[in-house]
Amino acid sequence: MAGFDKVVTDYSQAMSGLEDDMVVISGGFGICGIPEGLISEIKRKGTKGLTVVSNNCGIDGFGLGILLKDKQIKKMISSYVGENALFEKQLLDGELEVELTPQGTLAEKMRAGGAGIPAFYTATGYGTLVGEGKETKCFNGKNYILEQSIVGDFAIIKAWKADRYGNCIYRHTAQNFNPMAATAAKITVVEAEEIVEPGELEPSIIHTPGIYVDRVIKGDFEKRIEKITLSN
After folding, report:
1. What whole-number distance in Å separates Cα of residue 169 and Cα of residue 205?
2. How far apart are the first and last CA of the chain?
3. How many angstroms separate the Cα of 205 from the Cα of each of 5, 91, 171, 192?
4. CA atoms of 190 and 72, how far apart (whole Å)
5. Does position 1 have pLDDT exceeding 50, yes or no?
6. Which of 86, 103, 156, 162 lies at a C-alpha separation of 20 to 30 Å from 176?
């Protein structure tokens, strides 16, 4: 079973094959559950012209936000501009193409892509700017729009624990988008807090089966807090 070992030991190996103009799907929600080291490796490589699919684009100077400074991202497909002033500025200045997508629709685009479903109907966005130019259909007296699924070239994922075969579990908010994103790319790279031996993860709590994962790397995480709220 040695051929099933997906662990790599350096980030250049983890992101090998990433090229300009590719589509990268990034898991996480805000700056929670994000693959910090994999994002930093994209920054180091200087890969440009990327279309990045993620709920948001991190914050200024952290998470996916570090890719905006050198304009490595050509297009964002996301739900939320977030606490990122540079994202907002590049959007308003026309330097960054942004496709704002309802959060549930974005998650389903990833899930459907991973399941081999090319498109699906949803009521979300019908009659709004989101639905303009899209095919519509009426089911049981209710109108729906057709949304295309998403399949990326790379998916970068953050897991709490992963085994050497790529089976993953996520903690709490990190379960937002990471499980769907992990299924929806040609190459899926997981950055894990802890790598364990096969058999150590309880099968019933595995969120992403290793069949979807190509590479696993052990990461060190800053786990920055996006907005600190203190009580008197």
Report:
1. 7
2. 56
3. 20, 40, 11, 16
4. 21
5. no
6. 86
Would you say 120 and 145 are in contact if contact means Cβ atoms under 8 Å apart?
A: no
**198 residue type, one letter:** P
Strands 73-78 and 142-148, bridge-based pairing: unpaired
Given this model, what pLDDT does residue 3 score? 63
**Which tokens in the block code for residue 182?**
């992990």
Q: Summarize pLDDT for 66-85 with one digit per residue, the tens.
A: 999 999 999 999 998 877 89
Tokens of 119: 């498109």
Percent of the chain at pLDDT > 70 equals 98
The dihedral built from the CA positions of residue 114, 119, 123 and 127, taken in this order, carries a sign that is: positive
Long-range CB contacts for residues 74-79, cutoff 8 Å, separation at least 24: 74/21, 74/48, 74/49, 74/50, 75/50, 75/51, 75/99, 76/51, 76/52, 77/51, 77/52, 77/53, 77/101, 77/106, 77/150, 78/52, 78/53, 78/54, 78/106, 79/55, 79/103, 79/106
Tokens at 85, concatenated: 């002033």
